[in-house]
Amino acid sequence: MLFICVDRMYKPELSYYMAQGINVLEHLVFAIMAMNMLLFLKRIFIPDLKNIFVLSGLFLACNVLGAVNELYQNMVHRTIFDFTADSVKDIVVNFIASVLFIAVYLFRQKRSSL
Predict the structure, then answer these.
(1) How much is the average pLDDT of 91-103?
(2) What does the radius of gyration of the chain's CA atoms come to, in whole angstroms?
């Protein structure tokens, strides 16, 4: 979370590729944090759901959250459905991060059951 806050506050003059790399890292970290928070809330409020339903819901919620975030940013800066290449990249990075989170989660579940 600190990384995201610092990244949003501090904007040094960076090369295009460095700025894009930091932006991708920011979206990866945010998506993984969102998935962790959703999993934490699920464990508190709905502890007895089966994993496939939990993972499907987490995946859907994280990606809907990312898409809504991009729509909101579009609404503030452009027309709402005017997706730039950067907007699409952010949604794709969010998708990849949620897939990675689920893969690691399943790997840890399988490993702990052995």
Answers:
(1) 89
(2) 16
Query: What's the average model confidence in pLDDT over 52-58?
Result: 80
Quickly tell me which residue has 């949620």 as its tokens. 98
Of 7, 65, 4, nearest to 37 by C-alpha is 65
Cα–Cα distance, 106 to 82 (Å, whole number): 36
Entry pTM: 0.74
CA-nearest of 94, 99, 72 to 83 is 72
- Sorted by where each begins, the domain ranges of the chain are 2-113
Query: What separation in angstroms does the CA of 55 have from each of 5, 38, 46?
Result: 28, 10, 13
* Residue 114: predicted pLDDT: 62
pLDDT tops 80 at residue 13? no
3-class SS at 82? coil
Cβ partners under 8 Å of residue 30, min gap 6: 4, 94, 97
